[in-house]
Amino acid sequence: MCPRLSRLLLPTLALLGALPLSGCMLTRPQSGPTFSFVEEHLVPENRTAQYLLLPVFIPIGTAAALTDALVVHPAMIVDDVASDTHDALWDNLRWDETYMTESAALPWRTAATPVFFTGDFVGRVLFEIPRDAETIAATEDRREAEARLMAEARALLDEGKPGEALALLVQNHEPDWSRPQEEQQDYVLLIFRAALAAGRYERFEEYMRGPYYTVTATPEFKAMLETLAKSESPLARSVAFGWWVDQGKTAERDPLDVLHLMLNDESEAIRAQGLARIQPWLFQEGAPNPDLSVDLERIAESDASVFNREKAAAVLRQQADQASNRGPKF
Amino acid sequence: MNLIHSRTFIRGFALLALALTLAPLHGCAVFQKENRRSLNGLDARIHPQSAGAQIALAPVAIPVASGALAVDAFAVNPVLAVEPAWEDTYNLYWKPREMEPLTRAMLFVPIVVLTPPTFVGSWLLNSFFMH
Prior knowledge:
The structure holds 2 protein chains of 2 kinds. Chain A has helices spanning about 5-20, 35-40, 45-50, 55-90, 100-125, 130-160, 160-170, 185-200, 200-210, 220-230, 235-245, 255-265, 270-275, 290-300, 305-325, and strands at about 285, 285-290. Chain A is mainly alpha-helical. A two-stranded antiparallel ribbon of chain A has the order 1-2. In chain A, strand 1 (about 285) and strand 2 form a beta hairpin. The termini of chain A are far apart. Helices cover about 75% and strands about 0% of the residues of chain B. Chain B is built from 5 helices and no strands. Chain B has helices spanning about 5-25, 35-45, 50-80, 80-95, 100-130. Chain B starts with 6 loop residues before the first helix and ends with a helix. The interface between A and B is medium-sized, with 17 and 24 residues.
């Protein structure tokens, strides 16, 4: 074999072998414009004709796929590669403020530009990195779909169908971690509104403690908590009380006041939840918190629930141990 | 001779690519503003505002600024790194500690042996890498 050809053979075989592992266009010919044109306009729809003409369309299709992979796709991504290079090396130059520093960096940026451009170009050709335009279009499509869903959900809420609105929003919700949380706040707030109206308070727990934490800083969410705290439903009250206590000093309400409310609530379950959350608040500046101690003693003596009486008694014993340094400090 | 096929060109390109890739990953010291004292001094004194002045000054500014960067990287920062390198070495080996005389005696030779490479290693890290 010709020496030059034999030198090229091994790298070529290695590259062809690696292509299926990457997102190379050759492994997805259907996503190229030339190949798509051949498929849509040249291939007959009749299945028999397709099989008969295979000897013709296989080489045509192969040529179309190669054209896409080696010519069309690289030409299409040049603008994205240039944009990447600009963002990485030539963006945010402050010539007015740091003229000499930028001058010193100029030779290095210039040397790095072809290196970065080449690397980014090869990467975008070999791997399935969506074009900036595709990413932008996909994001806009998602936003439009979300806006339509939210409009539909609001209409259902206005018609007095909060359960249907909630189901619509929750079933079609697609978390998108690439977008800022603030963009998805309105959607999550609408879920909360629907959940509140439908009495589905568990949805609050699901969303407010998850990745959508920025929604809990909104005035609308805080107002919903106040509504939940005054609800006749113990589950609703427990959502609000639990949130305020768990947030500690950063909460809108003083956790000690909230614990006092919980320990005096008419629901045994809420009193139990208060007892479960009380440990970090037993002491105030080194001394037992007097208000909580009064509540604990009352519960230990006369609560309707055996569990609550025993739990309160246990907490009081722990408080006494800690006060005399006999037990672990919390 | 075709430049692209020149071994020197290919090796140089590969080395440049490697250096430009690794430098940010390793956190080159001069990437931080506080480690560019000479350049910062020049920035404070030379800051043409108009584009015309910036372009006109470029043939002089680029080599002068590059020289200042080299001075920072290979002279100023290494000199200033001596004190923190010694502090690291002192705190590691020579800071007075409570220990038995026998232990102290046994550790003396290893500490003497380890002091120079520790100092040099810390000096290199403090001179050339972000900290």
